Amino acid sequence: MRLISRLFRVDGELLPYLAQQRLIRVRATLILGECLGIGLLTWVLHARLPLLSLALILGLHVALNGIAWLRLRTGGAALTEVTLQLAVDAACIGALVYLTGGYANPFISLLLVPLILAAVTLPPLHAWGMAIWVGGLYTVLMRFYQPLQIQVSAEAAVDLHLSGMWLNFLLTAALVAAFAGRQAATLRLRDAELAQAREQRLRDEQLFALGLQAATAAHDLATPMSSVRITLDELRRDYAGDDELDQPLALLAGQVARMQAVLDRLGDSARGRSDRVGPPIAAQVWLARTLERWGLMWPQARVTLDLDPELNPKQPLLADDPALEAILVVLLNNAAQVSPEAVLLRARVLPQDLFLEVIDRGGGFDSGKAEGWGVGLELARATLERIGGSLEIGASEAGISSVGGISASIRLPLASG
């Protein structure tokens, strides 16, 4: 195979693997049609044909298709090489037609098959070169050919010619439809993938800009937050025995510590740090810890927790990633803003995911709160897609309240444990 690759190596842009594979299949089908045509002339119409010469041409065509297959196995062919392969296909068809009646042979239109394959596969310059080559072969076959010797009447000859044209049309149409249809489907799929990649790139650029702004904000707030913390520590020392101020100052100090922790997580997330991801943790423990931390920020909110019976303090396991906690906090914050008196958190275990659903009983989509994704939800969706999860927003069921609300559901991939 290496020797063949070196002998037939042509530098340049490579044709995609699937396109070359389809070309080889179409070429094999074309060779099979050539064999059937010669068999029809020999054993049905009893034509006098130079069978040895025809067999040599067919063998050469098969060998060239085999070389194309080997080239595909060794890395594929360049565009120029594929053009040469199609040109040789046309030459083989022309040689067969030359020995079987020339331009009077209805199967001469098979010369269009390599041209059509070149037109739908190769760049315009290569396709035009193939058109000139095929046109030249047809022109030569109008003057130079071996007449086909068949012992039939003139009327029968006309009928045979028309039947051959019909059969050739069906064969050509089938080959073109099979190849061109698959090529068109491949092109549509590629265009869809390119459009999705462009959309993903634009979204990544937007998220990068948001992350940069978040890192800048975390850095800018670090100094005033430190000043506030130092001032609070001094006030607590100065009023250590004051029963009236001791409790409020302690509460303020706790809230400042929480804000500092939030800023630290924000900075780490914006800089893309992953070293803070701990070992897998039980999903029930993770939920209880997240709700406890969130409850300090929303002490007035009332959350109902609906747990799957399969959840227990040991299984299933979930990655202890601060980003996952931040996602659930964003959903709980959105729900608490519209209905702090009633928020429902459902947790269900799926075969490979943990399904969480946060439901509120606010005004639903009519309230205007759910218009668009919002920065928090957009970041949450991007983070979940990165780790293999998903986020969906929809209208809630009537299970929590007769008032319509919003349901935000996420799927978190479970950790292997």
Task: Describe the structure in your own words.
The chain is built from eleven helices and seven strands. Helix 5 packs parallel to helix 7 and helix 7 runs antiparallel to helix 8. Helices cover 64% and strands 10% of the residues. The N terminus is likely disordered. A hairpin with a 3-residue loop joins strand 4 and strand 5. The strands form two sheets. The chain has a five-stranded mixed sheet with strand order 2-4-5-7-6. The chain folds into three domains: 150 residues, no CATH class; 55 residues; 136 residues, Heat Shock Protein 90 (2-Layer Sandwich), CATH 3.30.565.10. The chain is rod-shaped. It is α+β, with helices and mostly antiparallel strands and 417 residues long.
List keywords for this structure.
417 residues; disordered N terminus; rod-shaped; 11 helices; two-stranded antiparallel sheet; five-stranded mixed sheet; 3 domains; 7 strands; Heat Shock Protein 90; alpha+beta
Question: In short, what is this structure?
Answer:
The chain has 417 residues and is α+β, with helices and mostly antiparallel strands. 64% of the residues lie in helices and 10% in strands.
